[in-house]
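Morning!

This is the sequence you dropped in the shared folder:
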Amino acid sequence: MHSPTDQHWQSANRVLRYLKGMATHGILLKRHNPLSLHAYSDADWAGDVDDYVSTNAYVTYLGHNPVSWSSKKQKGGLRSSTEAEYRMKHIAIDYHFIRTMVQDRALRVVHVFTRDQLADLLTKPLSPTAFKDLTFKIGVSPRPSILRRRIEDQSYS
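The structure's back. Tokens below.
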């Protein structure tokens, strides 16, 4: 804050454009929903160009509904993306438990192709097309027009 640069100004403008463009969006939770739990996790590898620290993220679903998500910058740099993902607290703490669950076939771990990796939305800068595609896949959509009009009316009063 004591010596902002043009890059800081561009980043701030990008955040403000995002907030303006997404003000009418939300997550619609589906009523009829299977009780299956699944999650996507990702870590960029030294993605911050200033300090080369990685960002971890996950999105957890109950059926079709996203119920938990997080994106956090790590405290220190790591040497590989595998090490970054292993250190994610929600994985590292339960690593051995999860390994046993996989061996017992109570849990299935699968590779997710980049185009379908929902956690990328929380770890990487994306093109507008990829951003829109992933937000739709996560479940973010424009709110119904009745709610949108009420929100817009309240913001002008």
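Headline: The CA atoms of residues 45 and 79 lie 8 Å apart.

More detail when I'm at my desk.
O.
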